[in-house]
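Exercise 3.2. Students should predict the tertiary structure of the chain below and write it as structure tokens, then compare their answer with the key that follows.

Predict this chain's 3D structure.
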Amino acid sequence: MARVIASPLALMLARVQAPYQGCKCLPYTEQGQNGLFFQGLAAKNRFCQTVSSRVARPFPRRLGFQMRAAWEPLGGRLPAMSAPFGPVCCVLMRKGRGGIPVGAIEGRVFPLLQITMHHDTDIHNLLISLAWLGELRTDHVRRLWLPDHRLQAAQRLLQSLRADGYVERRMWSRWVPGRTTPQRQGALWSVSRKGRDMIRESDQYPPEYKEPRARRMVPHDSTTSEAIVRIIELGRAVEYEGQRGMSGLYVEREVRLDPTRPRPVMDALIIVTVGGAFDRPDLVPWSRDPTLEGERRVRYALENDRDTEPPTVIAAKASHYQRAGTPAWERRYGRFPLPLWLTPSTRRLQQILNLWRQAWPVGKWLLTTDAWLAQDYWIEYDRGAISERRLFSRSGMCRPEGDTHDQAALASILRRNV
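Answer key:
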């Protein structure tokens, strides 16, 4: 990377802006001397708008630091961006005297600074994923892109992207039993128009972008997002033919069972490709390309039930699924997916199971509850036989813990094999 000595004006701006901007600091060695690498993303009229981290203190001259500013196109250390969207401003601080070990004075110079995220966090993949998924909670972002970091790291990352206009935040509340007022929930994040403009030419951009839905649909859609994120986590842990990881993902919300008719719709079509030795727990690999040797593709139709539809609607859906998988569907999506039911309780799961087995006795589907989803526990109905399993495997299943009512309901379900 070509470097130039910073002008006095640039140094002055750095000193003025440093206390107010986040920063990232990594040790480095250059020409036998140890030092710190200070990196930020230049944006608008700010000298150092950063990607992550806590606020840094001003640079005390008494410690003998020299600063040099270096410019390079975005994309080197920040694979999220590309050159037309600005430069990366890197301020390199070299210790005035040698022989001091790396890290010896960081606590004195930057008492609030900590390395909070990996410097190769792929913001481009994050923005692409928000375009696919709609809205995600902060903890979803941490689980998918910062799995080894605390929630605060994801918060700082998202706040920085919001300050630059690449993402938008929506606050929301929901009614909680026993409370007289709605309770505030975690923030929801979506890609902004500016963010979409930046990633629109990517070959991983979704075929059709769907705006986040109305506020009244937020509780339902947030639960759908949780299910999708959990399926991604489970897919990353799959080992297929000796290879671990998820090598492809396709998600489309509100998909018609029959592409020629507006109703009914599934909450999400999820196509997962596992295997292929793409073991990246910090990326979401968006792809529907043909599978390669050593890969396996599974398809799911997510039905997120919030106990709001009457039994007649639930039974009618079973009839629609029986007739699905039309030539029009196969031309567009391939093989028809396996239905997945996500329910809020074991009581509701039992009700749906009974309705569907009556309406579609030779069908096959999986059911779980909000609590069981976190434990990767599923009930499978397959042509009259009921069994318990994990999503991607039948082995290694652990029966979930629960109260007496849940355990009694589960025992009743498993006894009802035909």
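Discussion points: Residues 8-109 form one domain. Confidence is low (pLDDT under 50) at residues 1-119.
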